[in-house]
Structures are given as C-alpha cells and as structure tokens.
Amino acid sequence: MVTPEQLSFVVVPPLLMVGAGAVATYRAPGPALRGAVLHLAAGVVFAVVAVELIPDLLRDHSPLLTIIGFALGVVLMLGLRSLTHAKEEGERNSAPPPAEVNVKLPWGLLSGIAIDLAIDGLMIGIGFTAGAKEGRLLAVALAVELVSLGLAVAASMSKLGMSRRRSVQVLGALSMNFIVGACGGILLLGNLPAHALAGVLAFGAAALMFLVTEELLTEAHEEPETPLLTATFFVGFLAFLILGMVA
C-alpha cells in the first residue's frame, strides 16, 4: 500500500515538471539557465547513487546479486535508448512538409520521454524499498531532474508551434507515467525479500548513473561550457551530500 507520505513525495516531482514547463511556454529558458539546471540535476542525481545507494550495497555484501542487478539496469537503459532513438530517427525521416509538422505531436520523442518517466518513477519505488529516508531524498533529486525535463519538453513543443495549453496538457499526460511507475514500484517492491534488495539497489544505481552520464550531462554539454556551469554540478552534489547528512 502507498502511504500518504509516500504519495506526497511521488506527486511533487511531476507537478514541478508541469509547472516548469508551463512557465517555459511563456518565456523559454536561455541556454545558460537550461545548462545550469541540467548540471545541477546531474550533480544531485549522482549524489543519490554515491550517498544512498552505494553504501547500502556495500553493507549488503551480495556481489552476485549486485552484478546481476547492475547488468540488467545497464542493458535495459541501453535498450530503451536504442529503441527511442530509432523511433525519433524514423519520425524525422518520414516528416511531412513544415506546414504540417506544427499540428502533429512528435510521438517518437514523447514515447521516449514517457518511458524515461516511468523508469524514474520506478526509482522512487526502489528508494522507498531501501528506506523512507532514501525514498524522500531520491524524490528530491528526481524533482530537480524533472524540472529540467519540463523546460526541455516545453521548449520543444514551442518550436513545433504548439499552443501553450496543449503543451501543458502534454506535460500533464506525461507526468502520469512517473506517478504510475512510482506507485507500481512501491507496491511491487514493498514486500521484497531482504536478500533481493541488493539486486534492486544495483539496478537503480545503474539506471541513475546512465541518466547522469548519457542524458543529463550529454544534453548539458550541448551548450557552451563555462566554469560557472561546470561548478553547478558540484554545487548540486555537495548540497545533496549535506542534505543526506542532516536529513
């Protein structure tokens, strides 16, 4: 059963994503702001792995389950990336004339985002499986990541000529994937045997590391790098490190 406290941490990240996207439909974020948010999100999510998941894995002393869970996480994320990239590429190759593009949703892009959000939601379930503190901190970390995602999706919708109202509706529909993934993860993993926890945590660590290295930082580095932007990554990491100490 999903408790009211867990539910409150589940709904906040997608609400922030929709809110950030709604703001971006009125004023799109500049490259510097978007790069800073991406670096900040990468630092915070990376800190989750270092501060919460890895120490739990070391305490469990389950090398075999750790290897299996970690390998499954890497394989799944690589497979999802290949699938979504193939859909996006096919969509671009079969794109209609520009006049028609403005009235069509980019299904390849949106399907990839929907899957990513479901996986992100599952991470919340994994966090609460490890403990209430881990779940809460992971929700905070993913909230920062979803803010950057909301800004990016809203900017993409605006470039396609989509109305503000429809852009927010798309974000709202996408956010449900996060909520379903999180609630499903909490329900499915809530009664997980203690000996299987290492595999689940290793899976989550691999998925989150993939998110940082192959998505957040990759997108952040598409913009011109400055020392200040690079420092934002370490600010996010340090802030979450301190939060983990005092929470």
Explain what this protein looks like in three dimensions.
The chain is mainly α. The protein has one domain (4-246). The protein contains nine helices and no strands. The protein has helices at 4-26, 31-60, 63-93, 98-101, 107-130, 132-159, 164-189, 197-220, 227-246. The longest helix is centred in the N-terminal third of the chain and has 31 residues, at 63-93. It is globular and about 50 Å long. Mean pLDDT is 87; it is low at 97-103.
Q: Uncertain spans, ≥5 residues at pLDDT below 50?
A: 97-103
Largest sheet composition: none
Beta fraction of the residues? under 5%
| Head-to-tail CA distance between termini | 24 Å
Over all CA atoms, what is the radius of gyration? 18 Å
Which characteristics define this entry?
single chain, 247 residues, mainly alpha, globular
